[in-house]
Amino acid sequence: MCGIVGYVGPRQSQSILLSGLARLEYRGYDSAGIAVIDGDGALDMRKRAGKLGVLREDLKGAPMPDGTTGIGHTRWATHGGPTDLNAHPHLADDDKLAVIHNGIIENFAALKADLLSEGYEFRSETDTEVAAVLLGREYREAGGDLGAAFRATVRQLEGAFTLLAVHQDHPGLVVGARRNSPLVIGLGDGENFLGSDVAAFVEHTRNALAIGQDEIVAITPEGVEVTDFDGNPVQPEPFEVTWDAAAAEKGGWPSFMAKEVSEEPEAVANTLRGRIQDGAVVIPELEGLDDLFAGLSRIVIIACGTAAYAGQVGKYALEQWARVPVDVELAHEFRYREPVIGPDTLIVSISQSGETMDTLMAVKYARERGAKTLSICNTQGATIPRESDAVVYTHAGPEVAVASTKAFVAQITAQYLLALHIGRIRGTVSAVEAAEHVRELEAIPGKIQRVLETEQAHIEQLAHWMADTRSVLFLGRNVGYPIALEGALKLKEISYIHAEGFAAGELKHGPIALVEPGQPVFVLVPSPRHSALLHAKVVSNIQEIQARGARVIVVAEEGDAAVLPFADEVLHIPLAGALFEPLLAVVPLHIFAMGLANARGLDVDQPRNLAKSVTVE
Ligand code: F6R
Predict the structure, then answer these.
(1) Same domain, 117 and 150
(2) Among 182, 215, 247, where does a domain finish?
(3) What quaternary structure, including any partners, is listed in this protein's UniProt entry (predicted)?
(4) What is the 3-state secondary structure (H, E, C) of 369-410?
């Protein structure tokens, strides 16, 4: 949450900062601001409540002097509402110093009380301004040594923070620090960048450095210096960004979400790419790490939101193919109840951003208790993979829309690869069976493409008709259950309609009371080819709700004639193996949520109250 960008170099920085912020806006869009050291050596700052567009208009109407050193921020409000005053940057040291921040400074109240007692004044309600004023005080005490002052400041802060600062007496220098919040360095030619993630600078450079936990960075046009909080030099880890700026553009699509749903086939294909050799799964990142899976007695998947639903799907494959018991836990619930974990537990965290604070804290907690940790992540250089023993990257490409779509199918794909990898090591799946599953996986991109081509127009029309619907229910059984939960989450998230997902078998234990005439209910029907019993059970669930007047929209495989008499609408998916159906069945639900939000005239990419990367607990 909150996007941060910093620049030093020969170029005027305002447009670089603003375009960096545009790429980071998915991280928060309550307010935006920039601070620049101008050509006359003065610090200029502008910040406005609202989306980045408001700031841009403001700067157009009343231009601000430009300069070659600057920082920019896009906010998701935590302390203090989304107002002009609470927007970042925050100024201190007689407005010569500007600070931006992502995270929560937990001891801000005590620090603020001290600073107030010393006569310092505050203009906002934010924890960030406390860090700014503190840095101003330390700067004076350090006799104008910005590096020393910055180190002294961050050592006093508790909680999660990425901080960037510029001081008008130090043109050509941006200092930054991180603890539990993201910050990466972009290496340019005679210029350097800082960003919450690589999207901030990918249009200028794909050469990046990852900054570790509790580290400080100083960038100048000539170079980059990284130290720990005590000033000891640290060697940052280099990496190359594997996607280019165009991948994070809308590219003619009406929204990032539309583009990302259309990229679901590619997200699966790219996650498989380079990991299949002669029909066998070979995950290069896991080479030499068989110890991670030796003596395994349990897997715990930890994640939040959509990633947790992907985990619930993955559980079926991990248990079936690797024959290890799997629990799926919401990361924020996991560490507050003394879970039973140890060296025989493998924690598999799933996170698109790799920065979700709840997930990160759960991973750290598990590691401290001796568990092994593996991260499934979509973002290079992110914190969670760096804090884990191993990582399997999903290669879904940058996901910009707040609602996760293509990352979801990539996360399931990565877990299936992992399940086959572990299954082969443990001897629980034969080479022949594994090759069969691999063939199924390889066919998935084409099948998702078919759903997009054959069903999209129909689903969008359905969504249009349902624009005034007040509530939608989703039912699924087995692997269809997490897909029902995902369908409901996506709908409430972007169309603000009440939606609930249920295990279809649970219906008669309570939720059926919600069904009244006209209630729309999506039902995910498993193929009768895999289990006639499961199929029959779902069909009878459909009959139960239809008898009570529900409007039934069925997602079923092509050729399933048994559901037709009971369905008001049928959305077809191609035939696939039982465990592979979720990768197809979720696609109509993603299209539907997007279609309904569009029909209601809502911003599908930036839904209210949300931010893509949830970096606060
Ligand atoms: C829903 C959504 C969220 C995220 C969740 C975890 O569409 O996007 O529920 O899935 O916040 O985020 P990551 O995967 O970045 O850890």
Answers:
(1) yes
(2) 247
(3) Homodimer.
(4) CCCEEEEEECCCCCHHHHCCCEEEECCCCCCCCCCCCHHHHH
- Cα distance between residue 552 and residue 527, in whole Å: 17
Co-location of 595 and 455 in the same domain: yes
Report if residue 614 sits inside a domain: no
User: What is the whole-number distance in angstroms between the Cα of residue 305 and the centre of ligand 1?
Assistant: 5
The phi, psi pair for 534, rounded to 5°, reads -60, -45
Mean pLDDT of all residues in 505-514: 92
Q: What is the pLDDT of residue 193?
A: 98
* SS3 state at 451: helix
Residues 496 and 421 in one domain: no
Contact 483, 524 (CB under 8 A): yes
- At 481, is the secondary structure helix, strand, or coil? helix
Domain limit, last residue, from 397, 429, 461: 429
If you count them, how many residues does the chain have?
A: 617
Q: Are residues 202 and 260 in the same domain?
A: no
What's the gap between Cα 214 and its chain centre? 22
Banded model confidence at residue 336, pLDDT cuts 50, 70, 90: confident
306 CB near ligand 1 (under 6 Å):
yes
d(CA 379, CA 396): 9
Ligand 1 atom with the smallest distance to the CA of 402 is: 8
pTM of the predicted structure, to 2 decimals = 0.86
Each residue's pLDDT tens digit, 345-379: 999 999 999 999 999 999 999 999 999 999 999 99
Residue 100 in tokens = 């931006």
Residues 210 and 279 in one domain: no
| Least-confidence region, from 245-249, 507-511, 535-539, 571-575 | 245-249
Catalytically annotated residues: 2, 612
For residue 134, give both structure tokens.
């503190």
Q: Are both 225 and 256 inside the same structural domain? A: no
CATH assignment of the domain containing 545: 3.40.50.10490
Q: What backbone phi and psi angles, to 5 degrees, belong to 608?
A: -60, 150
Strands 215-219 and 224-228, sheet pairing:
antiparallel
Alpha helices (H) along 263-382: 264-272, 305-317, 331-334, 357-368
Together in a domain, 497 and 363: no
What are 552's strand-pairing partners?
A: 521
Q: How far is the CA of 303 from the centre of ligand 1 (A)?
A: 8
Residue 356 lies in a domain: yes
The H or E element spanning position 207 is: strand 207-210
Q: Are 162 and 178 in contact (CB under 8 A)?
A: yes
The yes-or-no verdict on residue 611 having pLDDT over 80 is: no
Look at residue 81 in the predicted model and tell me its pLDDT.
86
242 and 385 fall within a common domain: no
Q: Decide whether any atom of ligand 1 lies within 6 Å of the 495 Cβ.
A: no
pLDDT digits over 204-215, tens only? 999 999 999 999
Domain that holds residue 64: 3-247
